[in-house]
Write a structure and sequence with these properties.
mainly alpha, 69% helix
Length: 78
């Protein structure tokens, strides 16, 4: 028996024994997914402030790294 044939037998067995949910469950899941997809999630409070804070802290870290690469600043070697 070749490896390919063994693989095909396993695939056929898995497909035959695969559990399939009941139609009522599938219908309920479909309705729930469609209902949740139609609703737009609300933005977190103070979204613009959060974006500005993250951008500002990122810019500050980049500035500190640039100063360090220029061998200046508080973390510069001796």
């Amino acid at each position: 028996m070749t490896e390919q044939r063994e693989f095909e037998e396993v695939v056929a067995r898995l497909e035959a024994e695969r559990p399939i949910p009941h139609p009522a469950f599938r219908g309920e899941a479909r309705r729930a997914l469609l209902a949740s997809a139609s609703r737009r999630p609300a933005a977190p409070p103070r979204l613009r402030l959060m974006v500005a804070a993250f951008a500002g802290s990122g810019f500050a870290l980049l500035a500190i790294a640039a100063i360090g690469l220029a061998s200046a600043g508080p973390l510069a070697p001796g």
